[in-house]
Amino acid sequence: WGQDDSSSLKTLGVDLLQKQNARLHHTEEYHDNTCLIVRRGQMFQLKLTFDRELKDNDEVVVQLSVGEKPLESNETLLSMNLRSGQDARCWCANISNTSGKECLVAVTSPADAAVGKYFLSVTTGPHIYNPGNKVVYVLFNPWCEADTVFMPNDTERLEYVLSDTGYIYVGSIQNIVGRPWNFGQFEEDVLDSCMYLLDKSKLKQKVRKDPVIVSRAMSALVNANDDSGVLFGNWSGTYSGGTSPVAWTGSAPILQKYYKTKKPICFGQCWVFSGVLTAVMRCLGIPARSVTNFASAHDTQENLKVDIYLNERGEKLNDMTSDSVWNFHVWNDVWMKRPDLPQGFDGWQAVDATPQEISQGIYQCGPCPVKAIRSGEVYLLYDSKFVFAEVNADRVFWQVKNENGKQKLVKLREETKAIGKSISTKAVGKNTREDITAQYKFPEGSPEERKAVEKACSYLNSSNLAVCESTTPLPPLQAGIQLEVEGEKALWLGNPINLNIIVQNSSAGVWTINLVASCQLQSYTGKIEANLGSIKQTVQTEGKPVIQLPLNIAADAYMKTVTSVEDELLIKVNIIAEIQETNEKLTDELTLTFQYPPLKVEMPETAKINEDFTCSFIFKNTLSIPLEKCKLHVEGLGIFKMETIGQGDIMPGRIIKSQIICAPNKTGEKKIVAKLTSNQVKGISGEKTITITA
């Protein structure tokens, strides 16, 4: 009996019901409202319109396809017969209601569906309805208990998935600064940029289900090193031909430009890589946070030791050391279960997009379970040895002496508690810093911590095992001498450096001390940019319980380098005291950071959607030096895209005021982030929040 064509059913239209689906799937923030954005493991509805009423024997198949040549065999083609019933393990579609020629269809994806961009078509008998512009994005679902990225706590989901602004912590242990950062995962083209990266990753459809593999692939693609990914890393101090890493205020402009040009964006350093990876992960639906480790070890030999070499003046030598200690390093934690590992390693996983070490042939790092780092189980995938060393290595100071034309190394001190401090991320639901060091390591010196280090050592470079054995602490000095440094830890740029080195001679012994102290300008990765000065003096302690030695350096000594290097620099002071009578050595190290006047953002507390308001940026140069070639970089998510406004030179005492007329296009709490850069000051951040009402 075959039906003749005239009576066979034709599809006339598909309504993706974006608004109601987006609300249920927590995707209404995404900029794109022509497509359907849903999360896996959760039902969504479609409305189909036919050329006549649906009969019981009409066959209707809803199809979702990926890529140019979709095939059912490799899961790039999904066919759902509306009559086939339900099965939680695979995609299915069922009729939930018919009314005249319209039919409401409930589509359910499995909780391990492959994430990506699908094209929708409908087949009825010989007719295929394929409009070509009906796109369904499928994302990970932290709201779905069966999804491996499930996050049970609602305020955490709000922070780690839906929040599009935050802070990335930078500076030094003594002076931690929260730098405002716009992740911007819902902005225009950002989702498409993530889909483009997924395609670039060449991951097969079957593994696009797995957040472990997807997050690892994204850690590789956010840097440009092997795969012309998103960002070029550059630590040279000169950034002509690109944007200086300190000038960015957020991730969206980087991902948008990358999506438009398909070429790597210049330039990034660790916090930029991390900010972009947080945006990509949150955009795809994987809970993520940017994490800063202060005094972060980069241990190239995998021996849990970072060697630092000083010359006879106490200056750190750049060229002798392949290991380094970064003042801070920023990576990411992503939240997921680890069915690929033994039990007990679910939860936060460290991933790092900054290109540091090659892993399986390319620059990628993680995901590595934070619990494995804490317990020293560094055999677990991925890259746990490297991350363990970043937070646990010991730091060894050596002095390079020239004796009769030969170099001789003298060990000055070994520090077991100097690395992996104040590990920081933004607190959940609050604009404050949360210290998560305890998630990464047991308390320094506790039996659990020593046990974790011993366990890690048993898996590390066995040829270097001797260095992992617990080093015997140096005996207390026979000459009861102590060193300290007095002075401001934060220095106004353009002011002289005035420090006092204090030798405490508590035992009132009679000693001859050879003292050297050096002052160097370095970048956050520990690279020496200039030697600013040193003192060398021999002091007699007889009858003096306290000896003070001034270390004074004029501002001119550092201003030239600060101006010519486009990175934010800091000052490191190293002191070495050698007691002649006992041949004992004491050392101390100090970090000074520059401080700057504030950048103020002024605007009303509230505004109405689509009604203009004025936002002002005010800055007074209270420094003693002019700031040359000033630029103001401003961005307000849901209000305006990133803009750069030239401000020329700002003389000492001068005030600048810049205004922007804003027309908000989204309701809710929105933030405007501003940054002032100049030749002298690399980045002063300011921000303010405004509530936009309907």
From TrEMBL:
<dbReference type="GO" id="GO:0003810">
    <property type="term" value="F:protein-glutamine gamma-glutamyltransferase activity"/>
</dbReference>
<dbReference type="InterPro" id="IPR050779">
    <property type="entry name" value="Transglutaminase"/>
</dbReference>
<feature type="active site">
    <location>
        <position position="270"/>
    </location>
</feature>
<feature type="active site">
    <location>
        <position position="329"/>
    </location>
</feature>
<feature type="active site">
    <location>
        <position position="352"/>
    </location>
</feature>
<keyword id="KW-0479">Metal-binding</keyword>
<dbReference type="Pfam" id="PF00868">
    <property type="entry name" value="Transglut_N"/>
</dbReference>
<dbReference type="InterPro" id="IPR013783">
    <property type="entry name" value="Ig-like_fold"/>
</dbReference>
<dbReference type="InterPro" id="IPR036238">
    <property type="entry name" value="Transglutaminase_C_sf"/>
</dbReference>
<dbReference type="InterPro" id="IPR002931">
    <property type="entry name" value="Transglutaminase-like"/>
</dbReference>
<dbReference type="Pfam" id="PF01841">
    <property type="entry name" value="Transglut_core"/>
</dbReference>
<dbReference type="InterPro" id="IPR023608">
    <property type="entry name" value="Transglutaminase_animal"/>
</dbReference>
<feature type="binding site">
    <location>
        <position position="392"/>
    </location>
    <ligand>
        <name>Ca(2+)</name>
    </ligand>
</feature>
<dbReference type="GO" id="GO:0046872">
    <property type="term" value="F:metal ion binding"/>
</dbReference>
<dbReference type="InterPro" id="IPR008958">
    <property type="entry name" value="Transglutaminase_C"/>
</dbReference>
<dbReference type="Pfam" id="PF00927">
    <property type="entry name" value="Transglut_C"/>
</dbReference>
<keyword id="KW-0106">Calcium</keyword>
<feature type="binding site">
    <location>
        <position position="394"/>
    </location>
    <ligand>
        <name>Ca(2+)</name>
    </ligand>
</feature>
<feature type="binding site">
    <location>
        <position position="449"/>
    </location>
    <ligand>
        <name>Ca(2+)</name>
    </ligand>
</feature>
<dbReference type="InterPro" id="IPR001102">
    <property type="entry name" value="Transglutaminase_N"/>
</dbReference>
<dbReference type="InterPro" id="IPR014756">
    <property type="entry name" value="Ig_E-set"/>
</dbReference>
<feature type="binding site">
    <location>
        <position position="444"/>
    </location>
    <ligand>
        <name>Ca(2+)</name>
    </ligand>
</feature>
<protein>
    <submittedName>
        <fullName>Transglutaminase 4</fullName>
    </submittedName>
</protein>
<feature type="domain" description="Transglutaminase-like">
    <location>
        <begin position="262"/>
        <end position="355"/>
    </location>
</feature>
<dbReference type="InterPro" id="IPR038765">
    <property type="entry name" value="Papain-like_cys_pep_sf"/>
</dbReference>
<comment type="similarity">
    <text>Belongs to the transglutaminase superfamily. Transglutaminase family.</text>
</comment>
<dbReference type="InterPro" id="IPR036985">
    <property type="entry name" value="Transglutaminase-like_sf"/>
</dbReference>
